[in-house]
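Re: the 156-residue chain
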Amino acid sequence: MSISIADKLISLGHRMPEAPAPVANYVATVRVGNLLFVSGQVSPREPTSAAPGRVGAELNIHQGQQAAQAAALGVLAQISAATNGQISAVRRIVRLGVFVASTPQFTQHPEVANGASNLIAAVFGDTGRHARTAVGVASLPRGAVVEVEAIVELED
């Protein structure tokens, strides 16, 4: 029997969040053949945060990486929901798109995106090594610091 995504996260010191429901007119995942497209998952805002932060201003690279990891947990929750939680249902993480709320002068988006990529690789091993885009944006939905989307190849 295959280990579940949730069990793997626990072994890495994380907890699987609930798969977030869409907040507008879209669906969380779409499967086309063996490809699963995961809509962008945002990093949750800290309840003590009075205002959204941007990497390069209010937040540093390490805090951005933590936000990317938190957003990646949402991606993993969506993958888990679509695969009955089984790691063995995932053939390959094909691509991550990582969007970082940052100042115009900030240029270390790849380092921030590593927070998401490192978690995905830790959960799936070589299957989790993926292509990636990391870009800076002026703002993200709900004041999030990072948003992560994914394309996943599933087993037949």
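DSSP finds three helices and five strands in the chain.
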